[in-house]
Amino acid sequence: MRKLLTILLTCCLTLIQSVYANCPGQIHENVRETPFPQQHNTLYINPSPLLIPLEMKQSDFLQFNLSQDKQFESASSILSENTPWCMFNPHKVLENGTWYWRVRSVSQSGETMPWSKTYTFTVTDDVPQFVTPTFDVFLNNIPKEHTRIYCFLRDSLDNARKNMRQHPDFEPMIAESREALDMDYRTDQVPYSKAGLMYIHTDYLNTAYTLFQRNVYAEKMVQNVRCLLAVDVDTKVINNDFKAGELAYLLACTYETCYERFTEKERTQIEELILTILNQYIPHIINKEEIHIFDNHFWQFTFRHFLQASLAIYDKYPQAKEYLEYSYELWTARAPASGFNRDGNWHNGTAYFSANAITLFYVPTLFSYLTGTDFMQHPWYKNAGMGLAYSWQPGSLSAGFGDGHEQMNPKPLRIRSAFADLIARSTGDPYAAWYSSMNDRYKNEYETRLYRLASGKKRPATTELPENAPKAVWFKDSGEMIANSNLKDSKQNLSLSFHSSPFGSGSHTHSNQNAFNLHYGGKAIYRAVGYYMNFADAHNLLDYRNTRAYNTLLIDGIGQPFTIRAYGYITRMFNGEHISYALGDASNAYCGISEYPMWVKNFENQKLEQSAENGFGKTPLKKYRRHIFLLHPDKVVIYDELEADKAVRWDWLLHSPIKFSIDEAANTLITENKEEKLTSVAQLFSEQECNISQTNRYKADPNEKIAVRGEEFSKSWSLTASFAPSKVNRILTIIQVQADGKQAVEIIRNGNRFQCGNWMIEAELNAKRPAGLYIRNVQNKATFSFGKKNPEVNGKAYQCQKADASMLYDKIDGEWKTQEMNDREMQISGKMN
């Protein structure tokens, strides 16, 4: 018997070691370290791009070889042309089965180096297909005349001009064009200092000229550019990537629109100025952007502006043509959302979607027109309407997990409305149509006005939220679950957002794996705190993007570092009529300090250390799994499974704009918003004792002197429930939200059973026993079970396939049914440990 137990123990240990050995150090790589794809990687799209680290490029060019024949001898094998960048797009659907690929370096003179090792990956039916044409299709369809940047509008312009005076955008267009006409840059001794304003005025004037064809607008555009040509180039403008992009666009747009109005000498000057900008940036773009996870500034504006500039002069300058090809191939390989996101949600922070919105619409519109292939058939675009509608609901705060989440933005930004309107017009997406009808700020958005006026595309006739709109949505690739009690009634909607992202932390995202926010009527009940004053100041580092600002956990006071290695993952999700559920795993998120040079430098500049005192460092955490529920319509349940290699203090965090009333004896936390007649009661249960404290102070206060966004620096309250040191802990939290002066029901406890109104909750809090959770509504019989092999479902025993499965019995898609789910396989684009 002892021998048998020893064998079983050894097998279990081997299995555990195998599981952890196969757990990636990072789901995605910040900068590509390994070739992609390989067998352990997820294919996000068919055909998949081939990507390699820069270190594998040993000479001027690369040549890729792809085949279903491991010897690469079949006639169907693909051998690429010599390419100067670290990516290759097959531009054809890859058949199901195993594929082999390799790469080699080639010199300028044609000398080839040995092939790399052969890599393999497998294509299956479940990989979504999206194929783009080869670059020559795009190139051959570019108009020869200078109407390229907005060539996709020319087929509808004549009709648009006939009807423009009845268009809602007509009067705003006239007002904007008058503003631009009134500005005289000739009086400015340093016109480059006004390049940003000239960029906006170029858009105003170009829109008016495109519709009216009146010389006064074109002549003003020419006059403005001549002011720049008359003085030396301001290197400060060109050295700023945003300003350089704006300058490149206003030059290219004016060059195209007013080509015949310039002298030959002036055209050459403009071309050379555009080339000066491109030549400064292109060497730092090629062989960087294709292998970097997501370079904010580049994808927000620079990509589009340099694409437009190259489009204007590609037929005269080889470097512009090469960059045009690079842009096309890069978009195919890594866009619209890093190349590793298909779910329609924005992986880099909800608020910062707005900075990407124009590019996300313009580029596929241009590419679709010139190739005859609809680039909005990419899976991300198919889900974008739902992503807009759920992640930042009309009249509400955003889901709230990145830069710009704070309460100074109480409703969606204008550009989100404009993007939703454009998607609705272009694709008919019902969520985008509903969203932009509820949030119609697009009518005042100037950068998209030309399309609305000139495209001839109408808004969908129906703008109602789809009848089958789910109560909860799982954005699998970006790592969020958002559940609503009543999305159709925003004033009475309880909205729960939960975040555990495979993209980790950094860029415009924060260290907030397994964090949640809770809103009622679009206003915060529990929400992250802090202000986005500066990307690198002490408040940003120690508070705003720090784990301590979020409704999640600290381990001995230590949170998650600013690195893509600090990832989370939503492994399970159910969407029932009465129970919405997600399971997030942040076990790998508490992984030390940031290794990125930018963050290291930012800490040094603030004379700060990534120390335990500041919330950074190694932890002995082994497991942090958070089960979170919206029990419709007004209750939230959280069950945390926590384990560490040694006893640690578990700091459970909760933040509110309202001061907490704390009953330490019962571990009850109450906030009462008297103005909104809204009360929330949260109660914590654990076998470990806890000490509860709250503060409205930050580690480092925001610098109010640099406030530029109209911030109101109200003090929010941050609560910490510190549980006594232990190696294993289980924490159950029951939250009740009551509006209109209603009272929360009393929670009746009997051991590990908790009666909360119609909900019966049974939670295993004994850390010596396997984790388990059972929830049942005594009225409608909706049931959830985790950790029970044979849970009772509607009066009968249910046989789970696996003991640790999550099971739901609920009304789903209009029908009562039982669902069972185990952990979703990680979708890995990076390396394995």
Walk me through what this model shows.
Keywords: Signal. Residues 1-22 have low confidence and may be disordered. The chain is built from 18 helices and 32 strands. The protein is of the alpha+beta class and 833 residues long. The longest helix is centred in the N-terminal third of the chain and has 22 residues, at 264-285. Helix 6 packs across helix 8 (241-257). Among the domains are: 50-123, Immunoglobulins (Immunoglobulin-like, Sandwich); 168-334, Alpha/alpha barrel (Glycosyltransferase); 473-729, Beta-galactosidase, Chain A, domain 5 (Distorted Sandwich), CATH 2.70.98. The strands form 7 sheets. Strands 12, 13, 14, 17, 18, 19, 20, 21, 22 and 23 form a 10-stranded antiparallel β-sheet that branches.
CATH-defined architecture of the domain at 473-729: Distorted Sandwich
Task: Give me the CATH fold name of the domain at 473-729.
Answer: Beta-galactosidase, Chain A, domain 5
Number of strands: 32
First-to-last CA distance: 36 Å
What best-fitting shape do the alpha-carbon axes yield?
Answer: globular
InterPro entries: Chondroitin_lyas, Hepar_II_III_C, HepII_N, Ig-like_fold
Pfam families: DUF4962, Hepar_II_III_C
Domain Heparinase II N-terminal: 26-184, 205-441
Subcellular location: Cell envelope
